[in-house]
Each structure stands twice: as structure tokens, then as C-alpha cells.
Design a protein that fits this description.
The protein is mainly α and 161 residues long. Helix content is 66%, strand content 8%. It contains six helices and three strands. 14% of the residues are buried.
């Protein structure tokens, strides 16, 4: 994404510092969250999918919508759902309206798993992230990442057109 071919826009010292801090911190937080969910036999991806299902009407979502909400490919979601079905946390249900699509449905076992893991997960978020930030920092981060996310959505939709 350089302005002219063969002329990269190299990162300056402040830009490089910001980028590296973001990458290193996000990886450390992700790894810590994964570790904190290990006693519950959940990965962070599994937990996120269960959260989305727990918030959905009747605890079910069309697979395509779930993939979009979870920001993962349909094939990756299908793989995760298959593993989550084996664990008994979700099941699939054919969409009666069009017969082409299917729903991911949270089972009672999936509900119990997220209810059990949620307090530890929330505490992990607080200890590892929120407690390090002031209320202003939290507002600034939310604003910054909403801005970046909005731009990424615009860029992605242009690339898909």
C-alpha cells in the first residue's frame, strides 16, 4: 500500500514504537487469556463463539452471521464448531426457511461452560488490561480502535468489490 511503486513508506521511530507496542501487547494479552481459560477446557476462540451464541435470541445464530461477528472465515468457523460439537457445547441445526444455511446452537452444556468460565475471564480482563488503564485511557483506546476498525471495514469492502 505504498503511494508509488517501489517506494515504501517506512515507519518512523514513533510509528515503529507504536506498532511494536501494539503487536507485542496484543499477543501477550491473547496468550494470557488463552492460559486463563485452560482450566475451563476452552480456547479464547471457543469462548468468543459461546459469548456470541449466549447473546443471540434462542442462543442460536446462522453460521454465516456467526463467522462475520467472530471475524473468522466460514471454513475456520466450521472447523471450530465441529470441535465444539464434539465437546458438547454447540449443535448445528438446518435452517428450515431456505434449507441451505445452518445455525449454530448453544447447548445446555455450552451454557454451563460459559457461565463457569465467565467470572475468571472477566477477572483476567481486569487484571491484565483494564486495571492498567485510566478511564480516559479506556475512552481513548475505544475511540482509536473504533476509528481503525471503521477504516479497515471500508478498505476491506473496497477490496471485495
Amino acid at each position: 500500500m505504498s503511494t508509488k511503486k517501489n517506494e515504501p513508506r517506512w515507519l518512523g521511530p514513533k510509528e515503529l514504537k507504536a506498532w511494536r507496542a501494539y503487536i507485542q501487547t496484543s499477543r501477550r494479552i491473547w496468550d494470557a487469556m488463552e492460559t486463563d481459560l485452560t482450566p475451563h477446557d476452552l480456547s479464547l476462540s471457543d469462548y468468543e463463539i459461546l459469548v456470541l451464541l449466549s447473546e443471540a435470541p434462542d442462543r442460536q445464530i446462522r453460521m454465516s452471521e456467526l463467522a462475520e461477528s467472530a471475524l473468522i472465515s466460514k471454513s475456520r468457523l466450521s472447523h471450530r464448531i465441529k470441535a465444539m460439537e464434539k465437546a458438547g457445547w454447540v449443535s448445528r441445526k438446518v435452517c428450515e426457511e431456505d434449507k441451505r444455511g445452518s445455525f449454530a446452537v448453544m447447548t445446555d452444556k455450552g451454557w454451563k461452560a460459559i457461565v463457569k468460565a465467565a467470572p475468571d475471564h472477566v477477572e483476567s480482563i481486569r487484571i491484565r488490561f483494564l486495571d492498567q488503564l485510566s478511564a480516559k485511557d479506556q475512552e481513548d483506546l475505544a475511540r482509536i480502535f473504533e476509528k481503525v476498525s471503521t477504516e479497515l471495514r471500508k478498505q476491506f469492502s473496497k477490496e471485495c468489490d
